[in-house]
């Protein structure tokens, strides 16, 4: 680790699997699913009934009161996650110049539920009933802006909108900022599109699971795979320069390498190139990677494609592969940050978590299935693919104490 490394020093997890990093990690190791029947609204008239909801979250208890009616649930979850991550990092924000602190988050759909309610007002009551906060609450950058304002962070701020892959792209941008004038970056992302309007938009992909069996609904890399289960939440991460974290003995792990790519219709996937570029950026060989946290879309074609890429880069069954997201659902802008948080916890504790539910795994990869594997991993690779062609990969390294 050197002074230019990006170290993740704080984790703020808010997902169906837990309201903090340790609760989430316990659920992952136990194979405890947070997926259940949708309760935010009655899903009986929709073809999808299951989702990974953050059931214990109450915005009025977790978010400053004045912000609750001004912002969407997706931002509420991120505000809570940012508070948790900053507390976990143990940083004194007063010790930073306000222009040395930056915010870069990922967002897939913006304030979907807030926008739905305002459109309902427009069509049923008229334009005079549309609230003034509609102009900002739905916007993809609303979460970044609210975190920045709340914590007085006036350095470079932005948002990445690239569906699931955007969560890794946000980390890539955070690393660039730390190599400049920024000393601390709040990054990661959340999503909260489990409302009628949001679910209908998701259905258009044709890749959502229609199963109503919790333990069989989301089966990536399984011969019975029939789509993924949607979810909400994600993880907010605190990124700092390696020199500061090392001097103070803080940090979960180091971001060693990052790369991104894009698939064009009718062309072979660029995912293998992206993975190789992330490893090259980290100055790693494939043999150096101890575990791959797969994107694991749950769609047969995409799973086969990803499995072939992993086998091509690492060799057949050459590296353990896992997809603990089956417990929380696929979280879009929040999914990859949650995978990063899970991978960092795995590096910390020397464990590769398993992928519950899969009984008929695709050949060619070493999918960790029945129980966590204690293999003392030192390097993890996280892969993310976004609907529409986006893809990204991040290599993470363990910090030795």
TrEMBL record:
Entry-linked PROSITE patterns: KS3_2
Keyword Oxidoreductase annotated: no
Keyword annotations: Acyltransferase, Transferase
Domain Ketosynthase family 3 (KS3): 3-398
Coiled-coil blocks: none
InterPro entries per the UniProt record, alphabetical: Beta-ketoacyl_synthase, Ketoacyl_synth_C, Ketoacyl_synth_N, PKS_Beta-ketoAc_synthase_dom, Thiolase-like
SUPFAM superfamilies reported in the protein's UniProt record: Thiolase-like
Family (UniProt): Belongs to the thiolase-like superfamily. Beta-ketoacyl-ACP synthases family.
Protein's name in the database: Ketosynthase chain-length factor
Phylogenetic lineage: Bacteria, Bacillati, Actinomycetota, Actinomycetes, Kitasatosporales
